[in-house]
Amino acid sequence: MIIKKEHALALLALEEASARGETSLTITDSTQENPYIELELGGLIRLEKPSTYTLTYWSRYLVDTLKEMIQKDLIEHPANWDEGFRWIGSEVITMLKNSAVNDGIPGPYIKDALEQRGFLKNESLNEYAQRILEIFENMHPRLLITSDTFKYLKDMPAGPGPVNILPVRGRELLKLESMRLIAFSVPKSDIFTLTPLGRKIKEVTKYAIPAFETIISEDILDSLVKLWDAEDVSVLTDAEKETLMALGYINDKGEFLPAGEHLTEVYWIWKEGKGTRPIKSFNLEQIDQEILKAIDQLWEKNASNPEIMPTVEQIIKEVYEKPLKEYKHLHNFYGRRLYQDLGYQKKEEIKKKFEEVKTVEELFKSFYEKGGKWYEKLGDVVRTSLYTLEAFNLVKSTVEKNKEVYVLTDFGKEVVEDIKQKGIREIHATAVKAINMNYSEFSAPNFEWHEKAVESHLVGNGEVTSSGELYSRLSYEIERLPHITKFEKMVLQAIPEKRYFVEDIYATFDEIWQEEIEYALDKLEARGFIDILPNHAIVLTEAGKLIKKAIAGAPSGMSNPLTPLGMRILIALQKIGSLYTKEKKIRILPKNWATAYKVAGLDPETFNKELKVLRMAGFVGTNSLTEAGILALEAFKLVNEK
Questions:
Q1: What are phi and psi of 231, to 5 degrees?
Q2: If 0-12 CB within 10 Å is exposed, 13-18 middle and 19+ buried, where does residue 448 land?
């Protein structure tokens, strides 16, 4: 759906013709017909016969809306608009939707853009904005791929990418946007991506034969689906069969060729919207990747020396005895950990110490030697990272030779291979989200999300890289185990359900915490607890609401109020316990406690240690799972819904 100056004037011309008693308007000058063609492709107006158009119910509603807004001085008459002004487009629909989800509040990032279009009243969406959304939701675009559009789709990158890399050819982009095949970013339309429908049609262009002026149309789709349902070529007329064969969709026996198989998927996306998905994400810090590498290397050493295994102690040794110069990329990470623990007033002292010491071990000794806690602090860093890795199903804690060791999952092995090829770098949640926006109906990633995806080698030259495909796939395939650190709890507790923005969370904390907040938001989003929208709104997911409530009673000083190991225990206790609905508890018989550690897949020592933490955090009582524990289990179920 796209309305620029020429489209708005075309709609007004149709309305004026209707007011004169004319049921339709014939465009005699072909050079002036383009906006009418795009409106018709968008499903807003109807083509009665060649070059003759008429308004529909929804386009009349749109014209009435525009005229009222002009009358109330909310927007100028289209005759006065700049040629490039986009009154409605994919970015505007995204802005309206994001605001609607947030109780009509757009937030500072997009406020000016919506105000310029006349859609705000007292910094909230007005009735006309609601009307535009209603029109958009009720319109069903046409689907007509001509030879020119076919070639454009075939030649263009699929996105996400900057708009300046798109081919410049006539009005093909306007046609694509009218049919909802391409979307642009908020608020300035500087990043593009093909929608699920657009991507699938692009797949068709790899195999189809552009034998005619029309390559894909609703009639062609109907013929193909008719054959698909009947599985008998005799259901087609001779003309239908010849057309499908000439375009490379079927062979002479009526069997589907690759182009035809992809085109049937186009039909189901176009007809029923089957190609869209909820937008999920994934996240790894550089320290997580270093530890993942260390686990892999320790198992390689184990092949020649069975005594070497990736226990927590061995991982600490593997990572932290190496020279600090090999970990320059982790300076910011260690700095953040030390600032958080020691206070940001020691920032300069910590920076200076980096220049003096040669190993991470020496760095930690410098600040924790007096308390004798330097090794414990190193262990905390490793443990937290291991929790992250297990939360994302990349490693699993298990028992070998009576020791707690970590093994790589199949997903973890894939990530290790990616690290070997592309190197260690931040995988931000918004970078992965920039790719997964490709699954949304009609929306594109923000400019800053796209830039992070480029920095992480997830996107390049307007296409998703092999790394991007990996982390996108992981975000949908992994089973997430909830994990919350002390600082993430602070951030989560500060976020209300609605009417809240990224700018607000930064303002809630001291300015020196900004980097820490960014990483916390990354983790919370990748774990499925919050959703950051393109307009910077932060929305608690249903799982996030449950987890927020579940951890509310945990003591503020706990480093990790909920861990993946703790979650495994909760799942095990749920399996061996009995639910008492009225009490909102799951009771565990005394005789069943003896088997609980086996069900959780943990050694008794680790089980008892984690159980103690769960009791302190309020998830487990003397002989039962509490309401908080049940809420955590419900959140676990929600974040892993397919």
A1: 55, 35
A2: middle
User: Are 283 and 522 spatial neighbours (Cβ–Cβ below 8 Å)?
Assistant: yes
At residue 217, the 3 state secondary structure works out as: coil
The pLDDT tens digits of the residues spanning 376-387 come to 888 888 999 999
Q: Any idea what DSSP says for residue 484?
A: B
What is the pLDDT, as a whole number, of residue 218? 96
Backbone φ and ψ for 4, nearest 5 degrees, come out as -105, -175
Rounded-to-integer distance, Cα 197 and Cα 438, Å: 10
Decide: helix, strand or coil at residue 581: coil
Kindly state the tokens that stand for 176. Answer: 């694509």
Helix (H, G, I), strand (E, B) or coil at 538: strand
Three-point CA angle 559, 390, 336, nearest 5°? 45
Question: How many other CB atoms are there within 10 angstroms of residue 482's CB atom?
Answer: 25
Instruction: Take residue 516 and report the two structure tokens written for it.
Output: 């820490």
- Residue 463: band (very low, low, confident or very high) from pLDDT cuts 50, 70, 90: very high
In sequence order, what DSSP letters do the residues of 314-364 get, joined into one string? HHHHHHHTSBGGGGGGGHHHHHHHHHHHH-GGGHHHHHHHHHH-SBHHHHH
Instruction: Give the tokens for residue 78.
Output: 């289209």
Q: Please determine, for residue 515, whether its predicted confidence score (pLDDT) is greater than 90.
A: no
Helix (H, G, I), strand (E, B) or coil at 299: helix
Q: Which of 401, 408, 454 is nearest to 431 (CA)?
A: 454
Share of the chain above pLDDT 90, in %: 79
Residue 284 token pair: 């790894």
pLDDT by residue (tens digit) across 196-233? 999 999 999 999 999 999 999 999 999 999 999 999 99
User: Model's pTM, two decimal places?
Assistant: 0.93
459's tokens: 């996107």
- Say whether pLDDT at 329 is over 80: no
Query: Is 114 in contact with 100 (CB distance < 8 Å)?
Result: no
373 SS3 class: coil
Amino acid in position 621: G
| Strand ranges, E, within 392-436 | 395-400, 403-408
Please give the torsion angle defined by the CA atoms of residues 41, 45, 46 and 50, in that order, rounded to the nearest 10 degrees: -70
